[in-house]
């Protein structure tokens, strides 16, 4: 068995690879990592935060629409489209798949199936959120350690 | 290259080198803030000047006000005015910008209906840097002919 790396960057890379292997992340996330924002090294963390906040809002709106006596499928479809778009942009593969399945049920106007599949969307969101939070934390530590190293350099 | 209905498969898969062009402008039309941001960043990496619009009506209004863009990235499903309606309206106005549709993965007929509205190309969202560089190469070739 290979020894685990203690290098924070290697640990982050290994973690991301594991998330790929589990289907939680896809190539779209790698595209984000490849983006360079020289002025803002915390760009990826901000993007993750943006996705999480938006997704929580969309999920709340879908929850409301599903809870109505007369289910508002139009709102569900609209918010689901936005949720799918954001999820695709961040590279959340399994969550995106769950959203696609829910979309079919919403198009069919099948409330019971929507309830069942929405549960899966929320589960996949929680999984993806935990994954992204971990990545965000690891990146913050790497950035902070990098800043401290530069400050220790002799003048 | 306006509304010729070309499919994405008709693009030449050539190198994206030397596509940085500071004279090109782009409009990103998408109701998703995250996707607007991503496409905005990707396009700016290639030196384009980028504006964003959150739905088709905002995009059409920009053109009505006299704005012009070399490239328009048009999402399909948007509130107020969707991408199909916006594309039809822009072509009816005589807009000759390269309009590239971006769609989600589901719906086999989704891209075809969108193409028929007057797109030049249509791809799944989000656009990758590779696709963007190929589109810019096509834009540069088109501009050289003019």
From TrEMBL, chain A:
Organism: Gossypium tomentosum (Hawaiian cotton)
Membrane-crossing residue ranges in chain numbering: none
Keyword Endoplasmic reticulum: no
Domain HPt intervals: 40-142
Protein function: Functions as a two-component phosphorelay mediators between cytokinin sensor histidine kinases and response regulators (B-type ARRs). Plays an important role in propagating cytokinin signal transduction.
Name by which UniProt lists this protein: Histidine-containing phosphotransfer protein
PROSITE patterns named among the record's database cross-references: HPT
Entry keyword annotation includes Disulfide bond: no
UniProtKB/TrEMBL annotation, chain B:
Modified-residue entries (4-aspartylphosphate), positions: 75
Domain of life of the source: Eukaryota
Pfam families per UniProt: Response_reg
A biological process from GO: phosphorelay signal transduction system
Protein name: Response regulatory domain-containing protein
Keywords: Phosphoprotein
Tagged with keyword Phosphoprotein: yes
Membrane spanning stretches: none
UniProt domain Response regulatory: residue ranges: 25-140
Residue ranges the record marks as coiled coil: none
């Amino acid at each position: 068995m290979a020894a685990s790396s203690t290098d924070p960057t290697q640990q982050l890379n290994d973690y991301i690879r594991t998330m790929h292997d589990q289907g939680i992340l896809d190539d779209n996330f790698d595209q984000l990592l490849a983006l360079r924002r020289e002025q803002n090294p915390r760009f990826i963390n901000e993007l993750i935060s943006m996705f999480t906040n938006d997704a929580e809002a969309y999920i709340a709106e879908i929850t409301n629409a599903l809870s109505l006596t007369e289910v508002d499928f139009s709102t569900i479809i609209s918010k689901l489209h936005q949720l799918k778009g954001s999820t695709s942009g961040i590279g959340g593969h399994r969550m995106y798949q769950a959203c696609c399945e829910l979309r079919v049920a919403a198009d069919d106007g099948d409330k019971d199936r929507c309830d069942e599949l929405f549960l899966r969307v929320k589960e996949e969101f929680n999984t993806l959120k935990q994954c992204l939070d971990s990545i965000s934390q690891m990146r913050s530590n790497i950035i902070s350690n990098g800043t401290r190293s530069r400050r220790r350099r002799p003048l | 290259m306006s509304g010729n209905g070309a499919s994405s498969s008709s693009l030449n898969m050539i190198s994206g080198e030397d596509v940085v062009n500071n004279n090109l402008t782009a409009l990103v039309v998408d109701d998703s803030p995250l996707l607007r941001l991503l496409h905005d960043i990707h396009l700016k990496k290639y030196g384009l000047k980028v504006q964003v619009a959150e739905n088709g009506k905002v995009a059409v209004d920009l053109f009505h006000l006299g704005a012009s863009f070399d490239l328009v990235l048009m999402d399909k499903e948007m509130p107020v005015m969707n991408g199909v309606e916006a594309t039809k309206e822009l072509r009816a106005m005589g807009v000759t910008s390269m309009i590239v549709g971006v769609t989600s993965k589901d719906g086999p007929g989704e891209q075809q209906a969108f193409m028929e509205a007057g797109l030049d190309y249509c791809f799944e969202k989000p656009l990758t840097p590779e696709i963007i560089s190929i589109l810019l190469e096509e834009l540069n070739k088109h501009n050289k002919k003019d």
